[in-house]
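quick one
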Amino acid sequence: MTALDDRRPRHGAGPTTAPAHLALAEAHAAHNYHPLPVVIADAEGAWVTDVDGNRYLDCLAAYSAVNFGHRNPRLLAAARAQLDRVTLVSRAFGHDQFGPFCAELAELVGKQAVLPMNTGAEAVESGVKIARKWGYEVKGVLDGRANIVVAQGNFHGRTTTVISFSDDPEARAGFGPFTPGFRQVPFGDVEALALAIDRDTVAVLLEPIQGEAGVILPPPGYLEQVRELCTRHRVLFVADEIQSGLARTGRTLACQHDGVVPDVYLLGKALGGGVVPVSAVLADREVLDVLRPGQHGSTFGGNPLACAVGREVVALLGTGEFQRRAATLGGHLAAELDGLVGHGVLRVRSIGLWAGIDIDPTLGTGREVCERLAARGVLAKDTHGSTVRLAPPLVVTADELDWAVDTLRAVLRELAGGPG
Ligand SMILES: *Cc1c(COP(=O)(O)O)cnc(C)c1O
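structure w/ pyridoxal-5'-phosphate:
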């Protein structure tokens, strides 16, 4: 416990410089986020330190982009080595990290080919374009008629096309007109999905576990039935594993829990190791080969630095260590969190090191809980009002998780008017 004690935050000692940093951002940055009032200056593993020297256990991990821990030594070494060689050539030329990255990632995921992009939203956009083109060229859908079925409560990013199929009023209001060609069905409702699919349907696009919606797990058998429907109607099953993928849930891909193999995987977030933005679309040749030179691209997609870091991410995942940690520690976390149900917590959903905790709204909002957690040295993020999401880096220890849950227990007691 000494190590953990050393790393515990020393909050509230001496003058703080955080307010000045926050004021600069308030004055000069777009107000499209409402961050917790924490100003981070450095980080290592599962811990971050703010500009005043306070330490926090990171229980968000940049929405799973930092699965392997902040400044993971192997990822930093790969990045540094590549910085000393070449960082960007554009796709006008080849480079020596590109082929190996695509081959190694394809092998890890079990698909024939990779389209590297940068952000998650770009991977989703690319997936939409590929599915439509596949629909016209391979399935034989009449030009301009393709539709894609998505789930209610989805989160796939922030571009105009991606928000066109969101049902979150905040994500959409004021940003129309929207891209047509999408249909929404309730997540987990296989009958609604069957009714939504017609001969012009080219894809069903789903998060196998809905992250931003609050870690919503599919009902048992749902993903299998989606797979079966897609096969029967010759529709691409596109799995957005940008948040659920790459060891977060205890498997390399969340779909593996259900023994389901989609036609297309979308990856992002942790694929860049918390170092650079790296995303990808993975599919077999029959699908990805609808893209020919000049029809799609990205200046930064598949750049040498991204590929070098991505290769090391794939190598880390190849050891199985992070998947095992997420599975084992996830079981531990779930058991601890269960003890909070009925004590300020209504419900907990979790898989691996990923939990959605529904706070009793009579105690306070998710935001209030996260503010109080931060004041005690635990960083987490609320979603949809009263849910607190935990997604610590997968290098977190059992002791640290226990401490995070104890801290949450104390915050809930405090909100209930107890001694805290
Ligand atoms: C974060 C996320 C995205 C968007 O990724 P960005 O890198 O923020 O564009 C897409 N899909 C899912 C499931 C995500 O969690």
